[in-house]
Design brief:
Largest interface: A-B, 35 and 39 residues
Order of helices and strands of chain B: HEHEHHEHEEHEHHHEHEHHH
Order of helices and strands of chain A: EHEHEHHEHEEEEEEEH
Helix content of chain A: 25-40%
Strand order of the largest sheet of chain B: 7-6-5-4-3-2-1-8
CATH superfamily of chain A: Class I glutamine amidotransferase (GATase) domain
Number of helices of chain B: 13
Number of strands of chain B: 8
Radius of gyration of chain A: 15 Å
Strand content of chain A: 25-35%
Shape of chain B: globular
Number of helices of chain A: 6
Strand content of chain B: 5-15%
Oligomer: heterodimer
CATH architecture of chain A: 3-Layer(aba) Sandwich
Radius of gyration of chain B: 18 Å
Structural class of chain B: alpha/beta
Number of domains of chain A: 1
Helix content of chain B: 40-55%
């Protein structure tokens, strides 16, 4: 199993480290030549969604990635990755997203909450995070809520979190993603 | 509580990695920077090149001007306060700045003490020209480090030597035996725990960007190859002929810093680069401020 990690900007190294801990191979996607390799899934990391969105277009990656996800490539999007999968960018996930929903850096926080399909609480680090205002299709399954806002969801083989599972030691969100990629 | 903020503030810097932070002086420039792909902007009244030209005392920017930029863009907004100026930092925290740069580019307010940054909820980035300075700033609560370089010159030579020095000092620490670390901590004038962290991990405990004199996509790629995790571009963009195009090219150069063919394309037709001034020609070495 090999997972592509979008490495245009942001915390991609942290995701690669997570995958290493789980014994899964990974490669970085910085341009089209990297993308055109066999892969079992894609991770879109946290960072700045405007930066990553622009680079997706400038580097000719936007359409190939959108098409691959539409055709069923499993994908995990965290924070900026969630925004990139929403109709604001790639539009493969039917969710309405509020960017910077908790305000500026002073609004960043850590909490623990349950996630559907995972036993017990999951650590959740929110950094200038978005949340999902509402789901736009019945295909979207809500997986977690914090203070009544949706912070994790799944649609088919697409999994998104508003928080950063790559920043804490709990590997279960990544394991959930890998189960979709198997 | 403050412990948690430190962690969250280090993590915001992690989200900026692989990105370009651009100096802007107006909301319009901030929008150009955001559209070009900046991962954050630094709001200031005068870019370093103009601070150099104007001379005199250089202070924190007008909070109203900073707020104008906060309203113009959705990416993180940083702003500078003077070294040791606790009150300027409190003002920047009050307007909910995303990151404070306690910066040698402004005139220092304190010749001995830096701000105790652990007392703040907002994060701080600080300049450093060697490992000792970097670890002292981290001990004071900085959650991100950048090289000092020589700001406002368009001359990358100082950023290069600061980054090279820091990386070689890190490699030296890694190769030491554990009982040598105590003496090294003394020599570096840095806390033992931080020295031990670097020995065990081969890197700083916080994100480390390049800054000072970066003017071209090639400069940015050079700094990334030397181990920077991202780049600040100050005067280099809005002192050049075509800021939007140059900014976008530098953003792409940071992502694909190892692809010389792409860098060649990115370096084409960018218009005039900032004229710049050689390090030997300047009278004021900002990098010597705040050790």
């Amino acid at each position: 199993m090999r997972i592509a990690v979008l490495a245009l900007q942001g915390a991609f190294a942290e995701h690669e480290q997570m995958l290493r801990r789980l014994g899964v191979g990974a490669f970085e996607v910085r341009q089209l030549a990297n993308w055109n390799q066999p892969k079992n899934g894609l991770i879109i990391p946290g960072g700045e969604s405007t930066t990553q969105g622009k680079l997706l277009h400038d580097l000719g990656l936007f359409e190939p990635i959108r098409q691959a996800i539409t055709e069923g490539l499993p994908v995990l999007g965290t924070c900026a990755g969630l925004i990139l999968l929403s109709p604001m960018h790639l539009g493969t996930m039917d969710i309405d997203v509020e960017r910077n929903a908790y305000g500026r850096q002073l609004g960043s926080f850590y909490t623990e909450a349950p996630v559907e399909g995972i036993a017990g609480n999951v650590p959740m680090t929110f950094i200038r995070a978005p949340y999902i205002n509402k789901v736009l299709s019945s295909d979207v399954q809500v997986l977690a809520k914090v203070d009544s806002h949706i912070v994790a969801a799944r649609q088919g083989r697409q999994l998104v979190t508003a928080f950063h599972p790559e920043l804490d030691f709990d590997t279960r969100i990544h394991e959930l993603f890998l189960s979709l990629a198997r | 509580m403050k412990q948690d903020r430190q962690k969250l503030n280090r993590e915001l810097a992690q989200m900026l990695k692989g990105g370009v932070i651009m100096d802007v002086t107006t909301p319009e420039q901030a929008r150009i920077a955001e559209e070009a792909g900046a991962c954050a902007v630094m709001a200031l009244e005068r870019i370093p090149a103009d601070i150099r030209a104007a001379g005199g005392v250089s202070r924190m920017s007008d909070p109203k001007m900073i707020r104008g930029i906060q309203e113009a863009v959705s990416i993180p907004v940083m702003a500078k306060c003077r070294i040791g100026h606790i009150a300027e930092a409190q003002i920047l925290q009050a307007i909910e700045i995303d990151y404070i740069d306690e910066s040698e580019v402004l005139s220092p307010a304190d010749n001995i003490y830096h701000i105790d940054k652990t007392k703040f909820d907002v994060p701080f980035v600080c300049g450093a020209k060697n490992l000792g300075e970097a670890l002292r700033r981290i001990a004071e609560g900085a959650t991100m480090i950048r090289t000092k370089g020589e700001p406002g010159t368009g001359d990358v030579v100082q950023a290069v030597s600061h980054m090279r020095l820091m990386q070689s000092e890190i490699r030296r620490l890694v190769s030491m035996s554990e009982d040598e670390l105590f003496e090294t901590a003394k020599q570096l004038q840095a806390p033992y725990e931080l020295v031990k962290f670097v020995h065990e991990n081969g890197k700083l405990p916080v994100v480390n960007f390049a800054a000072g004199g970066v003017a071209t996509p090639a400069d940015a790629a050079l700094m990334m190859q030397l181990g920077a995790e991202g780049v600040f571009v100050g005067s280099g963009i809005f002192k050049s002929g075509n800021p939007a195009k140059r900014a976008a090219a530098i953003v792409q150069a940071v992502t694909n810093y190892q692809d010389a063919k792409m860098l060649a394309e990115l370096s084409e037709d960018l218009g005039e680069a900032m004229v710049g001034i050689n390090e030997q020609e300047i009278e004021l070495l900002m990098a010597e401020r705040g050790k």
